[in-house]
Amino acid sequence: MRIAIFSDIHANLEALSIVLDAYKTEKIDSFICLGDVVGYGASPNECCDLVRPLVERIVIGNHDAAVAGRMDYNYYYEACRFVLDLHNQALTDQNARWLQRIPYTDKLDVDGLKINLSHGSPVNPTAFDYVFSMEQAFKLLPHYEDLAQVNLIGHSHLCKAFALEEDDVHEVVAQEFKIRDGMKYIIGVGSVGQPRDYDNRAAYTVFDTETRIFQYHRVEYDIEKAAMKIFNAKIDRNFGNRLFVGV
């Protein structure tokens, strides 16, 4: 099975549209979203309307949970809270109900692979902890036996992958790599709508569970159009400016 996995769209319709167009050049059997369809950007309903009928599986992100009233976000900084409030008020009833029903985790068992889906760390997924550094990956070793062979995550907006053994962690730096027996993987799939690795292109991934090959992809999109929507919506200009830099 060839699975399209993407995450952290953050209401960026221009980036999402280009990524979905790019997927048309791939032979995709199933679509999976790892959360944060909303937040930061200017097109929450449009992005929900595209993702909702497309994906076979989706897990909720922290921004989705905040907008859906499923978590307290008073501790978020003011500019972020403003957008979450804005999106909460803007969502259609259909999209609001959809976000309220999305699970925190999901699991697949396909082609002999056990796969776990979560927005942040697969350990205590409701906490939305990050896993994008070796130190954070090492903290998962005490939970090694509870991890699936492949653990797909978003949240960090970084294309970062780690291969875990029972007593060691290795960072996977390749843009294409094979899942190997005897190891467990934490794979961050990057961000469609707000990359943070100084590459401003939208990130998306493809996982072939039969060959066990995982691939990172990037594609350019109309950043100026996406940013102008943010500026015109009176959302904090930093959320538009950062799209140009990829941070």
SSE order and pairing:
Layout: E1 2-6, H1 13-23, E2 30-33, H2 44-54, E3 57-58, H3 62-67, H4 78-90, H5 93-101, E4 105-110, E5 113-118, H6 134-138, E6 150-153, E7 161-165, E8 168-172, E9 176-178, E10 184-188, E11 202-208, E12 213-219, H7 223-232, H8 237-245
Parallel strand pairs: 1-2, 2-3, 5-6, 6-10
Antiparallel strand pairs: 1-11, 4-5, 7-8, 7-10, 9-12, 11-12
Written description of the protein model:
The protein has a single domain (2-245), classed as 4-Layer Sandwich (Purple Acid Phosphatase, chain A, domain 2), CATH 3.60.21. The two termini are 33 Å apart. The longest helix has 13 residues, at 78-90. The protein has a 6-stranded mixed sheet with strand order 3-2-1-11-12-9. The radius of gyration is 17 Å and the shape is globular. The protein has 247 residues and is an alpha/beta fold. Helix 7 (223-232) runs antiparallel to helix 8. Strand 1, helix 1 and strand 2 (30-33) form a beta-alpha-beta unit. It has 8 helices and 12 strands. The protein has helices at 13-23, 44-54, 62-67, 78-90, 93-101, 134-138, 223-232, 237-245; strands spanning 2-6, 30-33, 57-58, 105-110, 113-118, 150-153, 161-165, 168-172, 176-178, 184-188, 202-208, 213-219.
The structural class is alpha/beta
Counted by DSSP, the helix tally is 8
Tell me the CATH architecture: 4-Layer Sandwich
**DSSP E strands, number:** 12
Domain module count? 1
Measured distance between first and last alpha carbons: 33 Å
Spatial strand arrangement across the major sheet: 3-2-1-11-12-9
Largest sheet: 6 strands, mixed
Helix-residue proportion: 25-40%
Ranges with pLDDT <50 over ≥5 residues? none
Principal-axes shape call: globular
Rg value: 17 Å
> What is the residue-mean pLDDT, rounded to a whole number?
98
CATH class: Alpha Beta
Order of helices and strands, N to C?
Answer: EHEHEHHHEEHEEEEEEEHH
